[in-house]
């Protein structure tokens, strides 16, 4: 297991690499080139510069989150083949600089959706939350709401230029149901996985967040059976999952521990996002993102890590979203302090698991 921290790049961040390196046990950065639009090839010089900047700060760059997938690929338009070729070139370019894992998602239109980016907790901190009744029916309203509470940071997967066209995007997806989205997903994986195998990259799909249909859009990465379908449609170690405990658990009928155990055993989890969520309002939908420590949320973090440890997890892990604490302001979910606490806590649990095992 190697602990990592998501960082958006010097031009996009308040948080410095020199601060991240001071988190005990922090080994690597989960990096990105946020300004490159989906569909374009990531230039080698930019990847090289990012890697060097991170290494100069004593950490490694092995995981990229995300190389986003152009909507034409998800919709299945004839233009997809060129975008797939570009994606393959990006894979080759990243491999040349030692990248091992690419995290991505296959969600139409929106990446993650939450109703609140500044949900107040009793201890005075604030966090992200999903309250179903507060999700507006009109997707344009959610865009306004999210952009209005982003503290002026661009949010991952919420590129303003792309979402400015949201009506056209919805129109373009109107004939894409689950079966069609799955077909387009299979087409994409069949095209790119051979390149990944050739250059030693593992693709790791992020679960849908939330893992059920929203705004009438189809969803294909929601539960155990979807993950099984993905792993089988191109049966290769290069075709894996970013197991996000929070997203998977947002559907209470998903057994996070079982899913982790199964896919770690199958060696299909090269990367994990670990966070805790707290179910509220008893409707099976509403939750807020709790501090990582088990007692604050609905997930048992010891059981989460034990399911991974016992089933041979040897990939990269990162503390997922943190709250805003100690007066910090920043990109919602991605402050420094609470994620640092999460990382140290997860490292502590892992050390205990290792030592108990070796006794
Ligand atoms: C949210 C993240 C997602 C994730 C993408 C992967 O905070 O977990 O935006 O990076 O879904 O492509």
From TrEMBL:
Keywords: Iron, Lyase, Manganese. One of its GO terms (biological process) is D-glucuronate catabolic process. Pfam families: UxuA. The keyword Manganese applies. The keyword rRNA-binding does not apply. It comes from the Bacteria. Coiled coil: none annotated. Its EC number is 4.2.1.8. GO terms for molecular function: ferrous iron binding; manganese ion binding; mannonate dehydratase activity. Its cofactor is Fe(2+); Mn(2+). It catalyses: D-mannonate = 2-dehydro-3-deoxy-D-gluconate + H2O. Pathway: Carbohydrate metabolism; pentose and glucuronate interconversion. InterPro entries: Man_deHydtase, Xyl_isomerase-like_sf. Belongs to the mannonate dehydratase family. Catalyzes the dehydration of D-mannonate. This is Mannonate dehydratase. The lineage of its organism: Bacteria, Bacillati, Bacillota, Bacilli, Lactobacillales.
């Amino acid at each position: 297991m190697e602990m990592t921290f998501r960082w958006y790049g010097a031009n996009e961040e308040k948080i410095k690499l020199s601060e991240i390196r001071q988190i005990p046990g922090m080994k690597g950065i989960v990096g990105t080139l946020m300004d490159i639009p989906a569909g374009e090839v990531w230039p080698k010089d930019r990847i090289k510069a990012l890697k060097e900047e991170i290494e100069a700060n004593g950490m490694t760059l092995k995981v990229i989150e995300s190389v986003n997938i152009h909507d034409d690929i998800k919709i299945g338009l004839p233009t997809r083949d060129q975008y797939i070729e570009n994606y393959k070139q990006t894979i080759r370019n990243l491999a040349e600089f030692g990248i091992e894992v690419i995290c991505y998602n296959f969600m139409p239109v929106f990446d993650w959706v939450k109703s609140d980016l500044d949900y107040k907790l009793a201890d005075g901190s604030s966090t992200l939350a999903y309250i179903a009744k507060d999700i507006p029916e009109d997707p344009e309203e959610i865009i306004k709401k999210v952009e209005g509470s982003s503290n002026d940071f661009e949010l991952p997967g919420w590129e303003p230029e792309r979402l400015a066209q949201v009506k056209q995007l919805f129109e373009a997806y109107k004939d894409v149901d689950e079966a069609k989205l799955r077909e387009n997903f299979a087409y994409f994986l069949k095209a790119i996985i051979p390149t990944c195998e050739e250059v030693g990259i593992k693709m790791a799909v992020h679960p849908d967040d939330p893992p059920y249909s929203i705004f009438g859009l189809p969803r294909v990465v929601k539960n155990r059976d979807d993950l099984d379908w993905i792993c089988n449609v191109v049966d290769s170690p290069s075709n894996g999952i970013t197991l996000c405990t929070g997203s998977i658990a947002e559907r209470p009928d998903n057994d996070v521990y079982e899913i982790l155990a199964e896919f770690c055993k199958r060696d299909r989890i090269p990367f994990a996002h670990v966070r805790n969520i707290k179910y509220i309002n008893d409707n099976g939908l509403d939750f807020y993102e709790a501090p990582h420590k088990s007692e604050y949320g609905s997930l048992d973090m010891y059981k989460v890590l034990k399911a991974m440890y016992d089933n041979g997890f040897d990939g990269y892990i990162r503390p997922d979203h943190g709250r805003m604490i100690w007066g910090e302001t920043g990109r919602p979910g991605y402050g420094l302090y609470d994620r640092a606490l999460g990382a140290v806590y997860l490292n502590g649990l892992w050390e205990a698991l290792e030592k108990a095992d070796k006794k």
